[in-house]
Amino acid sequence: MHGEVEDLPIARNGTDEAIGAPSLQRGLAVLELLCRHPEGLRASDIAHYLEAPLNSTGRILKTLIDEGFLQRDAKNRSYKLTRKLLTLGSPAVGERLLVEQSLDVMKDLREKTDETVLLTTVPEDFGVVLEQVPSRNAVRLVIDPGTRFDLHSAAPGKVALAFKPQKEAERILKRLNLKRYTEHTITGISAFRRELHEVRRLGYGTDRSECISGVHCVAAPIYNRHETEVAEITVTAPEGRIPIKSMPELAKLVMAGAREITRKLAGH
After folding, report:
1. Phi-psi region of 249 (alpha: psi -120 to 50; beta: other; left: phi over 0)
2. SS3 205
3. What pLDDT is stored for residue 82 in this prediction?
């Protein structure tokens, strides 16, 4: 393995690459790589994945830390994304960010359900967790902000697709890989379209052990002041605490929470 970034000589005159677009491209590649590895990576691993010189990788990592996009774990020397990148991608109303407008509602929903509550968004053909309020149960599902998820197997992903404009939804649908995660995962496009129709009819989406065996979720859409779906709020727990028969009642609470966040985003 290579040495770590703090031991790297930093090129100051462009000896290993020109300053400019190549550096920008490599910096963006680092961010994309760490999005796929929310657990973090060491500098040597990042350089290996990107097939990049270690000293230029070190310079890029230092810059991203200085700008607040990365944080470094002093114990294992790994680099992770900070919430700054998530914040920049969060829909905003003026200077009030979506996460800030949602936290109180999420905490209230956690108190009412005693389960983990997630705030997510779907920027393209994948979803990302923006924030979580964990359950206080000893056995609970914890999903760190920054975690990505597939749309076809997750309740918030279904919700986002169901309530996007039709042309945008169709464009995303054509690119999806309906990968099987469990025996309950929907892997056929016709079956998935029927599922999206049901989500639109009900006003909420569910995940019935489709992403992780034994885990159930209920999600509802959040809209901005332009009545565009921008995010999703989800309650998730082991299936024993969210059996399928209880999902409609739970959905009433989740949809009420989504409406409250929508109201706050509209400034009412």
Report:
1. alpha
2. strand
3. 78
- What DSSP string describes 215-259? EEEEEEEEE-TTS-EEEEEEEEEETTTS-GGGHHHHHHHHHHHHH
Q: What pLDDT, in 10s, does the model give residues 173-205?
A: 999 999 999 999 999 999 999 999 999 999 999
Find where tokens 């114990």 sit: 75
Neighbours of 98 (CB within 10 A): 25
pTM of the entire structure?
0.72
Angle value at C-alpha 171, between 169 and 172, nearest 5 degrees? 65
Under 8 Å between Cβ of 223 and 262: yes
Q: For domain 89-265, is the CATH number 3.30.450.40?
A: yes
Which residue ranges make up each domain of the chain? 5-81, 89-265
Give the separation between CA 154 and CA 215, rounded to whole angstroms: 10
- The Cα–Cα gap between 156 and 216 comes to 12
Q: Are 210 and 184 in contact (CB under 8 A)?
A: yes
Q: How far apart are CA 73 and CA 252, in angstroms?
A: 41
Comparing C-alpha atoms, which of 155, 159, 143 is closest to residue 229? Answer: 159
d(CA 35, CA 130): 12
CA angle 102, 107, 112 (to 5 degrees): 125
Right CATH for 5-81 from 1.10.645.10, 1.10.10.10, 3.30.465.10, 3.30.70.20: 1.10.10.10
